[in-house]
Write a sequence for this structure.
């Protein structure tokens, strides 16, 4: 599976020319354009500059597009207060052949199915469940571990690291998550691609210093904020 974005600019992104062939982590400073890029690649923001396997995304029929690429936003927003979580997840079941309870049991969230409102951490887990149920060829996660306790972060990491989903693009501020996943990395700053390459290249000491200065340091096999 290949995604191309050709020479795209808008009020946030500046002359983005990008080809994605592998699982990818998108990092970047606040306001750098990470979510805008994700919405663009998934078709939430319309453009003639996005191609999947050399087919213009705008030329792909909606039902085909839904099975091809899925954007998971950073927050859960259910517009109808009468919809239960079970109803919401049913809407993600586009193939109608996935057992929702199997997915929610795996995430230990089956007790939430009849609820109408959730905490921020519970909402994050429901979004991950919706991605597993949707099971698109490409899934774009926008901050999938935000608001989660450490044990839950480990659970989501294990899902992201596994082959349960096909191709994954993950937006995160979690440097350790990016490092442990080992996926290719794209770093955005002020709407410009500052780095696009392998995880090994990104986490070289000189490259980390060029991007973060003294604010990040490595302690054995983890990265911490250096409050110097």
């Amino acid at each position: 599976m290949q995604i191309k974005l050709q020479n795209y600019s808008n009020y946030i992104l500046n002359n983005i020319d990008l080809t994605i062939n592998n699982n990818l982590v998108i990092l970047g400073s606040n306001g750098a354009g990470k979510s805008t890029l994700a919405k663009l690649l998934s078709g939430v923001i319309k453009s003639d500059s996005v191609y999947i396997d050399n087919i213009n995304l705008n030329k792909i029929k909606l039902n085909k597009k839904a099975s091809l690429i899925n954007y998971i936003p950073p927050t859960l927003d259910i517009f109808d207060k009468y919809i239960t979580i079970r109803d919401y997840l049913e809407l993600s079941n586009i193939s109608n052949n996935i057992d929702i309870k199997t997915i929610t049991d795996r995430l230990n969230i089956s007790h939430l199915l009849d609820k109408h409102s959730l905490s921020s951490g519970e909402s994050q887990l429901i979004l991950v469940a919706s991605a597993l149920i949707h099971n698109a060829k490409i899934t774009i996660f926008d901050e999938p571990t935000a608001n989660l306790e450490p044990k839950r972060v480990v659970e989501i990491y294990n899902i992201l690291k596994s082959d349960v989903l096909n191709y994954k693009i993950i937006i995160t501020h979690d440097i350790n998550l990016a490092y442990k996943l080992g996926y290719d990395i794209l770093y955005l700053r002020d709407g410009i691609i500052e780095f696009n390459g392998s995880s090994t290249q990104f986490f070289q000491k000189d490259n980390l210093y060029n991007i973060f200065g003294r604010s990040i340091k490595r302690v054995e096999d983890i990265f911490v904020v250096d409050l110097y």
Observations:
- The mean pLDDT is 89.
